[in-house]
């Protein structure tokens, strides 16, 4: 029955805190990859080339429709079959970064589409270059409506990092399972993992909402 | 559209009276729908031409083609004697590439029905964006010139406001200053008062009146304000079904229209007011 | 080994895993819909306690990982005297997780039914319960269907995690086959394609059909 042991809790807490660092690092790296690669995916779908648009669109659909945990296994195990050995960290970052890049490209696409046509026309009438139009006119306006989605996926990528434990990345879940199999006690480690996730994801989600309002004010959009 | 015969069109317009803008048998189609049917229209330097007509008559398309927001399906448009929609290559005209368009576009400025100010920039930043980043004018100089223009349109005190803090009339006046800051030879006004509340239309039309009185700009305007068009234009063109049905001096066209369709349109407009 | 040989040798196991995945998806989806409706309605209740309970449930399940929830239900819940068999633990975890996300969809859809509808129902003196059942929910259902299409695909993907507590689903089968053959591209690649087919050519068309069906039912076509 219910027998929470506080001495055991204090004993394993340091290990879990260190593992939390790894989890945050994985989420941060993965997100950085996703943010940049997602923009590449989104912009690739706006080029005049129909073939490129089609290929990227289908790839994004494929990545979004299949399980991340399976993609992690795929990236980690398929390399060695062809002589390319990836470390768990590298494989994990590729898989999770690619997965969330597909999601973020949809967020960016929605944001870019939400900028009124008149803004493009005004930029043309002022003879702004395409690059300048994107970076100075369109993206600043596409950003605020994208922020909520970007924030959701930042929290999402953080919550999906436990899947990296399946290929041996020593993040929070992996450490908790290791503690469990060493001590045969699962109550404390798994409950603590849940509490640590809550303690990070809830304030982050709230912080993102505040940040979103701040950006809107800063850009004079509200 | 690709294999059209352009041999009849000159590589450039020359002579003493070259018009500032010249449409030569310009055709525009959306699929089957013919929006403009072999349009010929010349606008002299310093002339103010107003385009009127029922909706769907192709009048806004004329301005949008001149701003290169729409491609054309036939004919050639010349600006200041040089082809706009095409460019000379090995002694003949070919479709303009983006470099040529960029070069030619610097002659033309446009104001839109819905202003299209950049919402994340202040009034002043809107005006400075083009001069600094397209024309490469030093910031201090661009700022001084933009402030001067904002002063001219009566918006100097609102220069640090974002568009969301401005009324429609105020936004449109900033948009006019923004277009003028690029020092265009031709200014296009596309229904600039249509989205405004009646009580602020005057502040925008007064700015345009001053422009006509004090500057030698070539202007093309699409409007539903017949009284304004009559006061201000050198010439009025009545568009119907993708063609110029009738054109002439404002007193003649409004006072004594010759064609039946012009009469019908003008009396319908009069009734509505 | 050619791919055809691979399929003829391991096709049966892959197929049985696919069936398990499909059954898990259906069971988890039913649970998720039920939880989403209940929690979504509770979130709009006037009673603070009812509303609070739903909020806590939603925040906990959306604030932590599905994998953490699955392990907790499977490994920790027995310590409280609730032992679930691994298959049950699997679809319960997935259903409860997606139910929390669905609850927010339900709540948003109900709130986006135009105010005039609420007022019209009040004007003919409907009770709050009748109004919700007869007027608001049918319209909210139409609004939320597209979002459920995405949620169901997330749910299908979520079921792959139950392989980690040894439920013999598609993910589990290919992981086992990979462990003995090391044909990673064939095993994991095949599974990726099957998940894609399930999502894109079964769930998506089904949701489209459901949308059309519902539209006809409320006479909007």
UniProtKB/TrEMBL annotation, chain A:
InterPro entries: AA_ABC_transptr_permease_3TM, ArtM/GltK/GlnP/TcyL/YhdX-like, Ectoine_EhuD, MetI-like, MetI-like_sf
Residues passing through the membrane, by range: 12-42, 62-79, 190-211
Gene responsible for this protein: ehuD
Keywords assigned: Amino-acid transport, Cell membrane, Membrane, Transmembrane, Transmembrane helix, Transport
Localization: Cell inner membrane; Cell membrane
Membrane topology value: Multi-pass membrane protein
GO BP annotations listed: amino acid transport
Organism of provenance: Aquibium carbonis
Domain ABC transmembrane type-1: 20-208
Superkingdom of the source species: Bacteria
GO terms for cellular component: ATP-binding cassette (ABC) transporter complex
Family: Belongs to the binding-protein-dependent transport system permease family. HisMQ subfamily.
Protein name (Swiss-Prot/TrEMBL): Ectoine/hydroxyectoine ABC transporter permease subunit EhuD
A matching Pfam family: BPD_transp_1
Main location: membrane
GO molecular function terms noted in the UniProt entry: transmembrane transporter activity
UniProtKB/TrEMBL annotation, chain B:
Record's keyword annotation contains Membrane: yes
NCBIfam families: ectoine_ehuA (TIGR03005)
Highest taxon in the source lineage: Bacteria
Cross-referenced InterPro entries: AAA+_ATPase, ABC_ATPase_HisP-typ, ABC_transporter-like_ATP-bd, ABC_transporter-like_CS, Ectoine_EhuA, MetN_ABC_transporter-like, P-loop_NTPase
GO cellular component, one term: plasma membrane
GO molecular function: ABC-type amino acid transporter activity; ATP binding; ATP hydrolysis activity
Keywords: Amino-acid transport, ATP-binding, Cell membrane, Membrane, Nucleotide-binding, Transport
SUPFAM superfamilies: P-loop containing nucleoside triphosphate hydrolases (SSF52540)
Keyword Protein transport included in the entry's annotation: no
PROSITE patterns: ABC_TRANSPORTER_1, ABC_TRANSPORTER_2
The encoding gene: ehuA
Protein name: Ectoine/hydroxyectoine ABC transporter ATP-binding protein EhuA
Family to which the UniProt record says this protein belongs: Belongs to the ABC transporter superfamily.
Species annotation: Aquibium carbonis
Compartment(s) of residence: Cell membrane
A Pfam family recorded for this sequence: ABC_tran
Lineage: Bacteria, Pseudomonadati, Pseudomonadota, Alphaproteobacteria, Hyphomicrobiales
Automatic annotation (TrEMBL), chain C:
Ranges of residues in domain ABC transmembrane type-1: 18-203
InterPro entries named in the record: AA_ABC_transptr_permease_3TM, ArtM/GltK/GlnP/TcyL/YhdX-like, Ectoine_EhuC, MetI-like, MetI-like_sf
Main subcellular localisation: membrane
Pfam families recorded: BPD_transp_1 (PF00528)
Subcellular location: Cell inner membrane; Cell membrane
Membrane-crossing residue ranges in chain numbering: 14-39, 60-81, 87-106, 141-168, 188-210
Highest taxon of the lineage: Bacteria
GO MF annotation, one: transmembrane transporter activity
GO cellular component: ATP-binding cassette (ABC) transporter complex
Swiss-Prot/TrEMBL GO biological process terms: amino acid transport
Gene3D superfamilies in UniProt: MetI-like
Membrane-protein topology: Multi-pass membrane protein
Keywords: Amino-acid transport, Cell membrane, Membrane, Transmembrane, Transmembrane helix, Transport
NCBIfam families linked: ectoine_ehuC, HEQRo_perm_3TM
Family designation: Belongs to the binding-protein-dependent transport system permease family. HisMQ subfamily.
Protein name, UniProt field: Ectoine/hydroxyectoine ABC transporter permease subunit EhuC
Organism, as annotated: Aquibium carbonis
Lineage of the species this protein comes from: Bacteria, Pseudomonadati, Pseudomonadota, Alphaproteobacteria, Hyphomicrobiales
Gene: ehuC
